[in-house]
């Protein structure tokens, strides 16, 4: 029986694919945690874990009270 990845990893991988294909281009704001949890039919905590992992790895940046954004590697502050 193949090993199934935890849902937060599946969400992380899907978000990475959407970034790679330009659905979420560099500098773009991701949908809210609430909207993502509805899209993936899971809890806010599961989505938050996927986002937090990507933030820790420098793929996303969180701006409190504003949202979560795809890192723009070409931005001057990077």
From TrEMBL:
It comes from the Bacteria. InterPro entries: Bact_HTH_transcr_reg, Tscrpt_reg_HTH_GntR, WH-like_DNA-bd_sf, WH_DNA-bd_sf. Residues 5-73 form the HTH gntR-type domain. The keyword RNA-binding does not apply. Keywords: DNA-binding, Transcription, Transcription regulation. Pfam families: GntR. Gene3D superfamilies: Winged helix-like DNA-binding domain superfamily/Winged helix DNA-binding domain (1.10.10.10). SMART domains: HTH_GNTR. This is GntR family transcriptional regulator. It comes from Micromonospora zhanjiangensis. The lineage of its organism: Bacteria, Bacillati, Actinomycetota, Actinomycetes, Micromonosporales.
């Amino acid at each position: 029986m193949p090993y199934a990845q935890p849902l937060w990893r599946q969400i992380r991988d899907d978000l990475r694919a959407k970034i790679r294909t330009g659905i979420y281009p560099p500098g773009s704001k991701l949908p809210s945690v609430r909207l993502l949890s509805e899209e993936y039919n899971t809890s806010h905590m599961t989505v938050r874990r996927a986002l937090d992992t990507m933030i820790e790895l420098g793929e996303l940046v969180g701006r409190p009270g504003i949202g979560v954004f795809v890192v723009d590697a070409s931005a001057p502050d990077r």
